[in-house]
Amino acid sequence: MENLKPSYIKTFEKDDIALEAKDLSVLYGGTVQKLFDASLQFKRNTITALIGASGSGKSTFLRSLNRMNDKVATVNGEIIFHDLNVNKNNINVYELRKNIGMVFQKPNPFPKSIRENITYALKAHGQTNKKELDKIVEESLRAAALWDEVKDTLDKSALALSGGQQQRLCIARALAVQPEILLLDEPASALDPVSTSKLEDTLKQLRSKYTMIMVTHNMQQASRISDYTAFFHLGHVIEYNTTAEIFTNPKGELTEDYIQGSFG
Question: What are the residues whose beta carbons fall under 8 Å from the beta carbon of 40, sequence distance 6 or more?
């Protein structure tokens, strides 16, 4: 039987923590447990990679952080954001997702213009000032390193963009509502190497303003762009440390085996 106790879990000073999960467990159908007592702290203005084999619980964990699992699973434990447990029933989930945005594995732009992809949620919640909306469109697209490529075609369909451009548009759309945290579920898995490189450059630039938590199967990607890495195995967090330590000096045997490609 494998030892699934944590070998090392890094912690931070309270003022440095943007988000914290405490003893997070996830059950599907009330009986199938996919995550066991996961506790992690995420440091402000950093990129954290969640790695592990398929079925290790990393995407389940990520989707719990902004309540994306609410309708499909039972999530127990605490998710602390601004000193508030946002895993309680009385939380406004829409407001939470404005602050903790999500970018999915497959680019999912709305079947609307590039401009409308950015402004849709803003207009739906009362923003009508055209000048302000135009400003947000430009700022969001610039932040996602897409402005120069689309500034002359803002009223054309977003579906005409390449896959890499669509994914950066989805990041811009998430940024338009001014989140503090960005969750990314394998954002480059459907992209070619050139688009992946552009996306990684974008994420590195965004690190100065946002806290990002990213699931990735790509070990090289994790080592290239993340500051911290958490290794998941069979629903357990086994090790959490700086990316440099995880990849060059792992504390646990399971982590070392995974990094060396012995399984997964």
Answer: 9, 20, 21, 61, 230, 237, 240
- How many CA atoms lie less than 13 Å away from 39 in the CB half-sphere? 12
Q: How many CA atoms lie within 13 A of 57 on its CB side?
A: 25
Per-residue pLDDT tens digits for 173-221: 999 999 999 999 999 988 889 989 999 999 999 999 999 999 999 999 9
Q: How far apart are CA 233 and CA 51, in angstroms?
A: 9
Q: What is the side-by-side strand order in the sheet with 32-43? A: 32-43, 17-28, 74-81, 84-85
* DSSP label of 249: S
CB neighbour list of residue 204: distance below 8 Å, 6 or more residues apart? 47, 225
Q: For the segment 154-168, what is each residue's pLDDT rounded down to a tens digit? A: 999 999 999 999 999
Give the predicted TM-score (pTM) of the model: 0.93
Q: Which two tokens mark 220?
A: 């090289």
* DSSP result, 9-73: E----GGGEEEEEEEEEEEETTTEEEEEEEEEEEETT-EEEEE-STTSSHHHHHHHTTTTTTTTS
For the chain, counts of helices (H) and of strands (E):
10, 11
Distance CA 68, CA 261 (A): 31
